[in-house]
Amino acid sequence: MVSDNDVAGRPELFIEERFVDGARVVSVRGEIDHDGKDVLRSVLLSGAGAGAAPARLVVDLSGVPFMDSSGINVFVAPHQAVSGTAGWVRIAAAQEPVLRVLELVGVDAVITCHPTLEQALRP
After folding, report:
1. Consecutive 10-residue runs of the chain (123 residues): their mean pLDDT?
2. d(CA 103, CA 55)
C-alpha cells in the first residue's frame, strides 16, 4: 500500500495494488487533487508497458469521493503508455462527482469507465 503525506489536515490518499486474472488492479481511497496526483501517477505508470505482456490496468475509484481537474492527466498518462499495444486502462466504480469530471473533459471517451470492478475486469 502506498499513501501520500497528510497535507494540512486533509485525508491521505491510499493506494493498493493487486493482480486479478492477469490484470493489475489499483484501488484508490481519498481525494485525487493537486496534492496527491503525483503519487498516484507514479503508481499507475510503474506498471505501464512493463514486461513482455501488454499492460492491463484497472483503476478502482470506488473509494474516491472527489477529484479535481488536476487528476485528469493521472489517467491519460498510463493510457498513452499502453497505446499501440494490446494493453488497456479501464476505470471502475467512479462515484458520480468523479465520473462527472471524467465526462466533462472527455476522458470517458478515451478510457472506458465501468460501473463496477467486476465489469471492468471482463475481457
Report:
1. 50 91 95 93 78 78 94 92 89 97 95 98 92
2. 24
The three three-digit cell numbers of residue 64, written as one number: 474516491
Q: Which long-range contacts (CB under 8 A, 24 or more apart) does 116-119 make?
A: 116/92, 117/25, 117/58, 117/60, 117/62, 117/92, 117/93, 119/92
Sheet holding 23-29, edge to edge: 2-3, 14-20, 23-29, 56-63, 88-92, 112-114
DSSP assignment, residue 9?
A: T
Nearest to 118 by CA among 3, 17, 6, 21: 21
Provide the 3-class DSSP secondary structure of residue 64.
Answer: coil
Task: Collapse the DSSP code of 93 into the 3-class scheme (helix H, G, I; strand E, B; otherwise coil) and give the result.
Answer: coil
What is the length of the chain?
Answer: 123
